[in-house]
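Private note to self, pasted from the team thread so I don't lose it. Backbone tokens:
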């Protein structure tokens, strides 16, 4: 490796994916993600089970990330880790591991804010490509299981939330509505899959009409629940018979709400560089609608590859690389934080 090349091992364990990645500057050499099937039966993430699974997965996942990257531990320049927001027990597994490794190797420890990392996933290059990256300032719609935010990004470390959900996050809305449709957790990707063959105009659901740039999704969840109750009373097989149209209609409603606020944010700020991030940005309806709206409004859009949308350590490496350039390091008294704003 050349002197100007910075090799970082990133670790992500904020929720239910144990992930490790290796980067060289802002290029990813590996990005290994171990999911946790154990939660499916419970309809949501069980924090204690998540912590235990992280504990079991972290060493093999880190080994695999180093092996795939072809990098030995002693070649690393820094260890990066998600410090929050997230489940405290899950975060503690990653943070403790990263602290121990940075101490053992005598290399810097870099703490990363998970929500900042989602945004900065837009700067990741993979082994082969030199994808265009956003220029500052840009807007990022960060949509995940726990957050729905429109972020004004002025620099790698200067991000301002200018709109957010007042209740459920978009991913939470997908997952909770999926549950009422008898789909297993996490339901977002399944709604996406069924929606592909469904008619989005078949059922109409209301969206909250909030002023400014904030979102609300809890009303949608309730209205789908009452709608289903009414129809199931007439036909016990209503869901099975209409699953594709139901999923397409729900997805269309959520996507419309996200895109409308994004348009408003672009009008208010005059910014036409638009990025998306977070698990829900893997949604094919959102991705294609964004492309359409971009053409009509002269936006340049940045859509990370699917593997960098949902939780992954690659994005932790990218966020850490820009902190490394600023010598922004942490000490061994770093403590994870369940709540952490941008
Ligand atoms: O960013 P993420 O992996 O974890 C959090 O930080 O929350 O986001 C997970 C969320 C879940 O709610 C999941 O259902 C949703 O992202 N999700 C999707 C899709 N893929 C993941 N929602 C809709 N369509 C998808 N294709
Ligand atoms: Zn996330």
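Design output:
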């Amino acid at each position: 490796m050349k002197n100007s090349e910075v090799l970082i091992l990133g670790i992500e364990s904020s929720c239910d994916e144990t992930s490790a990645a290796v980067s060289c500057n802002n290029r990813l050499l590996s990005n290994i993600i171990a999911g946790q099937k154990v939660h499916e039966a419970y309809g949501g993430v069980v924090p204690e089970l998540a912590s235990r699974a992280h504990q079991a997965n972290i060493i093999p996942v880190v080994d695999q990330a180093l092996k795939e990257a072809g990098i030995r531990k002693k070649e690393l320049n820094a260890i990066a880790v998600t410090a929050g927001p997230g489940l405290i027990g899950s975060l503690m597994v990653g943070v403790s591991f990263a602290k121990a490794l940075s101490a053992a190797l005598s290399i810097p420890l870099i703490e990363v804010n998970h929500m900042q990392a989602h945004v900065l996933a837009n700067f990741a290059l993979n082994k082969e490509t030199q994808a265009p990256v956003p220029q500052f300032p840009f807007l990022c719609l960060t949509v995940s299981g726990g957050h729905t935010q429109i972020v004004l990004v002025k620099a790698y470390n200067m991000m301002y939330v200018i709109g957010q959900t007042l209740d459920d996050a978009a991913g939470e809305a997908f997952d909770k509505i999926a549950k009422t449709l008898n789909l297993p957790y996490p339901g977002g990707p399944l709604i996406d899959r069924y929606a592909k063959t469904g008619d989005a105009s078949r059922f109409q659901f209301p969206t909250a009409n909030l002023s400014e740039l904030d979102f609300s999704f809890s009303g949608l969840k309730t209205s789908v629940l009452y709608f289903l109750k009414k129809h199931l009373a007439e036909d016990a097989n209503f869901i099975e018979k209409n699953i594709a149209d139901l999923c397409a209609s729900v997805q269309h409603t959520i996507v419309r709400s996200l895109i409308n606020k994004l348009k408003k944010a672009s009008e208010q700020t005059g910014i036409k560089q638009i990025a998306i991030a977070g698990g829900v940005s893997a949604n094919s309806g959102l991705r294609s609608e964004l492309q359409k709206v971009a053409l009509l409004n002269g936006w340049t859009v940045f859509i990370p590859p699917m593997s960098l949308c949902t939780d992954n350590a690659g994005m932790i490496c990218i966020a850490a690389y820009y902190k490394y350039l600023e010598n922004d390091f942490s000490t061994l008294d770093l403590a994870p934080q369940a709540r952490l704003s941008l």
